[in-house]
Amino acid sequence: MSPIVEALACFLGFLSWLMVGLALPNRYWRESTFDGNVITTSTVYENLWISCATDSTGIHNCRDFPSLLGLNGYIQASRALMIASIVFGVFGLVGALVGMQCSKIGGKNYVLKGRIAAVGGVFFILQGLCTMIAVSWYAANITQQFFDQLYAGTKYEIGQGLYIGWSSAVLALCGGACLLCACQFKSPNEKIQYAHQRTIRGHIRSITATSGTPSNYGRNAYV
Fold it and tell me: Which residues form the signal peptide (predicted)?
């Protein structure tokens, strides 16, 4: 395993996990559009949890969504995927930190540490996929309503929270890919020590015989 690539992958994974934590409570997942409005008295912006409105005087009013079951299906799915993304990111960070060569956790068994780091890379990839699906699904509904001429409700535009989510997903996928590419289950320098070595003729030569210890048997003892 390359320590530099491991450190880079761990940094990318931590940064992506941190950005997921910033994107989830961000209030600007979608913001009401000014397109086609001559006079705008208030601006509405929402995320997965609350809906807020601000008027021309700068007063903000926010309210939580009243019912979980009353929400649209894509909002419920995006909530679940974002929470799963945070959980996967935690497991990925633990696997990356334990599996790194510079970490003393797990001893000096680099084969085992490489496997743990590879599992951490898989969790980072799962984190990135969950974030990418949740954010893209949410954005797809925004664009579908925006370009629908028959939609009579409030039309929204993509907010900054979605861009943070997309950036987090890309970083998580890059970090997981780096961990999987850097981890080798067995490096060329690791050699397995055997107690006995098989000679060319097929006989087994013991370590005591090769270390110079005299044998009790003569040459004619073997047939």
Answer: 1-23
Please tell me whether the overall predicted TM-score, pTM, comes out greater than 0.70 for this model.
yes
CATH fold of 3-190, please? Butyryl-CoA Dehydrogenase, subunit A; domain 3 (1.20.140)
β-bridge mates for residue 107, sequence order: none
Dmax of the chain from CA atoms? 110
Residues 6+ away with beta carbon under 8 Å from 19: 164, 165, 167, 168, 171
**Residue 35 β-bridge partners:** none
Helix or strand run (H / E) with residue 158:
strand 156-158
Contacts of 214 (CB under 8 A, 6+ apart): none
Q: What is the pLDDT of residue 20?
A: 94
- The CA distance from 161 to 158, in Å, is 8
Q: Are the C-beta atoms of residues 1 and 182 closer than 8 Å to each other? A: yes
